[in-house]
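Record type: monomer structure entry
Structure origin: computed from sequence
Chain ID: A
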Amino acid sequence: MNDSRNRDDETPSWFSSYLTLWRSVPGSLAYLIGGFVLSMVAISVLSSIFFSGVGMVILVIGIPIIVGSLYAARGFGMADRALLPLTGLPAIAEPQWPTVPADAHWSTKLLAPMKSGHYWSYLLHTMIVAPILATITFSVAITWAATALGGLTFWLWAWTLQQKADTVGEWIARGLGVTGGARILEAVIYLILGVVSGVTLPWVLRGLSRFHHGLASALLGRWPSDDLAAEVRQESAARVAALQAEDSAMRRLERDLHDGPQQRLVRLQMDLATVERRVAAGNHEEAVAITKEAQVQAKAALEELRALSRGVAPPLLQDRGLTAALTQLGQDSPLTVTTTLDPAIDEVVPADTARALYFVVAELLTNAAKHSGGRSVELTGNLRYDEPQRLRMTVTDDGHGGATPVGGHGLAGLRERLAGLRGQLTVESPEGGPTRIEVTVPLRTAPIA
């Protein structure tokens, strides 16, 4: 009973797969025919251009001609990749083409394609590999499709054939010792060939298309070295962004110290000197008044130093980790902060990432207290164990919304700081609130087992 039920369940699945293959038949035929035409045009054009350039390379003018053939090969290769989706197979990723700075010397721009392996790979595929493969697959596909169509319809057009020679049916009839019915026997033979060819046509076309797709993926697609180069560029850009963000933060701290506490301390020093002179002169009442003013200046300087100290990582971050530091940060906020943090964060987040995240969350909580008009904030942090592993933190307030990143400061500055970690900052703040800011940072450590 169970075996029969399983067989019944498998049959529709197999039949559905077969129907899916049949749906790809027109596209595969179109690609194999179109690819053959494209290959014939490509080999004609590229051969004449490339070998003309090789022949004249001694005259120097051959070099730009060869470069032109490389650009033409890229165009033909891209056309081939554009046709491949007709087969229903996955699209081939675009390779990483070389980029040249706009202010580079003209010779550097001219020779850039000749230094790229992708251009030569496209030339190899378009001028040699594709024409050979396209000729073979085109012949097989047309023969197979013609056999299927001709065999299934033979009985419709067989009467148009002139009987000038023995037919296949007559040869087989004589071999079997049959004296009549040669035309019927021939029609049966062609029908069998047509049925077999028609039933197997989807698999044959899919196989031929896969040959093209496999070679195109290797020669026209993205290489592992492209991903490695992109990774290096991202790391370099992240490092530059981190240095710029750090430099900007240090400059701002220096400016704030100069404009705030430093000026007040200078004023305090002058007031104390004035008090000393007034006391020495016996003007005690005036000295008391100046002393009170000095107390005000000292209190203001202390408040400003406390505000600036939020830009310096607290000892709690190093001693007990990011979750404890963020929890304390929420408790010190003038708003009601509900903190929900994954305890595993401290085990996987590197120290430099934890430091940067502390500053980002501190700035977000400060912004919420100053500008949101809300009363409460929800701070959450959790790990996402996908590839690559990421830490996601969200700060959501119940304020009036309308927060937008403005270039040069605020949320835009936090976005620049996160760029140094290859992280992202997403702002959702419709008018009327709430404001939800999500911070996502990739981690370099492996997931917890």
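Annotation 1: Residues 1-8, 176-181, 445-449 have pLDDT under 50 and may be disordered.
Annotation 2: The domain at 315-442 is CATH 3.30.565.10 (Heat Shock Protein 90).
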